[in-house]
Amino acid sequence: MSRSTPGVPNPDWTDPDCPVARTLDLVGDKWSLLVIRDAIDGARSFTEFQRRTGIARNILTDRLGKLRAYGLLTQRTAPSGRRQEYVLTDAGRDLFAVILTLRQWGERHAFAPGETHSTLVDQYGSPVPEIVPTSADGTILGPDTTRVQKIR
C-alpha cells in the first residue's frame, strides 16, 4: 500500500468510491487498529506500543510511519523533553467509535459464554453502553433498514 493523504486521489485505492474500502486501505490491518486502540488507551512511546501489542519492531516502525502519514498520529516532544511520543490527531480520535464497536462485537461473538475478557468502562467505572445506530427519528438501524446511495 502506498502512502497517501486522506481525501487525495490515490491510484491504489481498493474501491475509490467506497468509504469503507478507503478506510480499510488506511487502517484495515490488525496492527494499525491495535496501535490506535493502545493510543486511545494512553500508550505514547514506541516501547509502550511494542510491549502492549507484542508487535515486531520493524512492523511497528512501519505502522507508526503510516499512521503518521495518514494523519492519524502525530509526534511531539514528551513532557520530559527526552524523547518523542505519539499522540492521536482529531482524525485518530475519531476512530474511537470504530474501536468501541469492534470491542462490543468481540464481546458478543469472539468469546465463549462465561469466558473472561476486558471491559471498557467510563470515567465512573460503569461499563460503556452498547452502541446502537439510530435514524433521525430514533428508529434502530440495521442491514434491513439502510442502503448505500451511490452519488455520481
Summarize the structure.
This protein is mostly helical and 152 residues long. It is built from 6 helices and 2 strands. The chain has a domain at 19-95: Winged helix-like DNA-binding domain superfamily/Winged helix DNA-binding domain (Arc Repressor Mutant, subunit A), CATH 1.10.10.
- State the end-to-end CA separation: 26 Å
CATH superfamily of the domain at 19-95: Winged helix-like DNA-binding domain superfamily/Winged helix DNA-binding domain
> Over the alpha carbons, how many angstroms does the gyration radius reach?
18 Å
Counting DSSP H or I runs of 4 or more residues, the number of helices is 6
Helix amount: 25-40%
How many strands, which pairing sense, and closed or not: the largest β-sheet?
Answer: 2 strands, antiparallel
Tell me the structural class.
mainly alpha
Please state the average pLDDT score.
Answer: 91
Shape: globular
State the total count of DSSP E strands. Answer: 2
CATH class of the domain at 19-95: Mainly Alpha
SSE order:
HHHHEEHH
Strand order of the largest sheet: 1-2
Strand content: 5-15%
Which runs of at least 5 residues are low in confidence (pLDDT < 50)?
Answer: none
The CATH architecture of the domain at 19-95 can be named as Orthogonal Bundle
> Remind me, CATH topology of the domain at 19-95?
Arc Repressor Mutant, subunit A
Region (Disordered): 132-152
Pfam families: HxlR
Organism: Actinoplanes missouriensis (strain ATCC 14538 / DSM 43046 / CBS 188.64 / JCM 3121 / NBRC 102363 / NCIMB 12654 / NRRL B-3342 / UNCC 431)
Protein name: Putative HxlR-family transcriptional regulator
